[in-house]
Design brief:
The complex is a heterodimer of chains A (205) and B (121). Chain A is mainly beta. Chain A is built from 3 helices and 12 strands; from the N terminus they run βββαβαββββαββββ. In chain A, strand 10 and strand 11 form a beta hairpin. The radius of gyration of chain A is 23 Å and the shape is extended. Chain A starts with a strand and ends with a strand. By secondary structure, chain B is mainly β. Chain B is built from 1 helix and 5 strands; from the N terminus they run αβββββ. The chains are: A mainly beta (205), B mainly beta (121). At the A-B interface, strand 1 and strand 2 of A face helix 1 of B.
Amino acid sequence: MKGIIGKKIGMTSVFEPNGKQTACTIIEAGPCVVTQKKTVDTDGYDALQIAFGEAKEKNTPQALINHFAKANTSPKAIVKELRNCSIDKQVGESLTCEIFAEGEKVSVIGTTKGKGFQGVVKRHGFSGVGEASHGQHDRQRAPGSIGGSSYPSRVFKGMRMAGRMGGDQVKIKALRVVKVFPEQNYILVSGSVPGHNGSIVLIQN
Amino acid sequence: MDTVVAFVHEQMTGNKELPKFKAGDNVTVNYKIIEGAKERIQAFKGDVIKRQGRGFTQTFTVRKMSDGVGVERLFPLYSPNIESIEVNKTGRVRRAKLFYQRDRQGKSARIKEKKYIAVAK
């Protein structure tokens, strides 16, 4: 597995060589710094720790400042681990978006936009109960019965109901790398990516 | 964000040169059509009734009358399938979107041509 941390910039569309227009997301990916290499012997698992984005030194705990100092780098805002990483880099070396080639399939992990308190129709895709006519008026987005009175005479655990929606970590799989701009650290991936513009995403495959 | 998108658009469009035209102009769009292995060029001539969007994703709509039936076709401006665009006439119109053309036929659907007169110095 290989991966890189990035920032979602926004969406646009590009033309493929066959003339088809493809919607794609621009991600500012990297440069990241390798801050630690974890191994089975020392930590119990293999992982590569990478950091992205500048942070102010006065807002960074001393422990983290020293941790970054081991990799000879300034304090970073985001630190993530890549388990069983295939990238062969030493601590302190930087990681750029060139690890991905055009045409490669990647998955993107991010946090979805918060939707607030939502009903079952939006949150779980229920179709509502009522009809529009025949005297019905306030049942069109209702969840319906959540449990019978004689059996089971209770509500099952995990019953899908209204509640907070969004703000979940989501992985979008099989997005295609449309284009890479190594000098500007931009990656174009096909399709959409979770989160607001400016939110942090992890690209991996 | 906008500067990054603009940069990407600039990189993707290259230096494709397109004639200047706007709503009300009469244009001929030479559009590549790929049928299996064959490739041919089809011309679509009509009035531009709309230009929409910005940057690389801009589109424009061309309307023409075909056997008394109005036909509209939407083209992405930077589509690689557009071979060339020829501007036949510059129209004198007062709006950017000419949707009123859809309700008109015959004489009232004509668009006056904008004529430029050379001024003697």
